[in-house]
Write a structure and sequence with these properties.
Strand content: 5-15%
Radius of gyration: 18 Å
Oligomer: single chain
Largest sheet: 5 strands, parallel
Number of helices: 8
Distance between the termini: 35 Å
Helix content: 25-40%
Number of strands: 9
Shape: globular
């Protein structure tokens, strides 16, 4: 049954995780990282001029074609984190195959897009059990494998809603995955907001904040998120400005990398 298959999958993934950890130790291939207080990775190779463009999607992925064309035009690779909901949607199957075929990183974002921890209050009180979290990750990984992703290449996990706690990090590590998060201080993540929200930020505001932040603090090793799918009520879509973001930051001396 489903439980048995997930148990088999998790055991296989744990074995793969141990094998991969050994390989990385032997090759000294693990990049330098910076973690936040929960253990999530918020910078990769922080001493470099590298930026890690990331895209997460659940049900909405209408900007995926624009994103892929822009990345190809600029000759760069990026990282995509997709839910099982997204991967199962026939509407996006061709896009998923292009992500894989073009050599971008494709990793898990949670199967059912569950909220793992409260938004407010004590975020360390998990909203799902450890077993439920493992099953959610396992189901997402099974969809990735079904899409043609080699599971031995999957190392990074960006939790649903880009929100997690220390238990999320611990459970993810138990199945051979490292939680990656967004570099603090960069507001491009607010591109999902709609005009009716008090927290709404226009693309113009987000672009200015990004470029101003770079001038003041730099973006060395930054993990920068843009959503390739937003609510229809937001006609002002940041992903339409991806080419400008890439060209501007390239002129400032940065290079774009996919997750290593």
């Amino acid at each position: 049954d489903g439980t048995a298959s997930l148990t088999y999958y998790l055991a296989r993934r744990e074995a793969q995780g141990r094998k991969e950890a050994t390989r990385l130790r032997e090759q000294h291939a693990r990049p330098e990282t910076v973690r936040d207080a929960r253990g999530g990775i918020i910078r990769i190779n922080p001493g470099s001029r590298e930026i890690y463009l990331t895209f997460t999607a659940d049900e909405r992925f209408e900007g995926g074609r624009t994103v892929l064309e822009t990345l190809k035009k600029n000759g760069i690779k990026a990282s995509f984190f997709l839910t099982g909901n997204c991967l199962r949607n026939p509407q996006w199957k061709e896009l998923v195959q292009e992500i894989i075929g073009q050599g971008h990183y494709l990793g898990p974002h949670g199967d059912r897009h569950l909220l793992y921890a409260p938004w407010e209050g004590d975020t360390e009180v998990s909203l799902v059990s450890a077993d439920s979290l493992r099953n959610d990750i396992a189901a997402n990984m099974a969809e990735l494998e079904h899409a043609g992703v080699d599971l031995s290449d999957i190392r990074w996990f960006m939790p649903s809603y880009e929100h997690f706690n220390t238990e999320t990090v611990r459970v993810s590590a138990s199945v051979g995955l490292e939680v990656v998060h967004l570099t603090p201080g960069i507001l491009t993540r607010a591109d999902y907001t709609t005009p009716d929200m008090p927290s709404y930020r226009s693309s113009r505001e987000l672009l200015k904040q990004l470029f101003d932040h770079e001038k003041e603090f730099g973006l060395q090793g930054a993990i920068l998120l843009i959503h390739p799918g937003v609510e229809p009520s937001r006609s002002d879509r940041l992903y339409d400005n991806l080419d400008r973001i890439i060209r501007t930051l390239k002129r400032r001396g940065y290079v774009f990398k996919r997750m290593p």
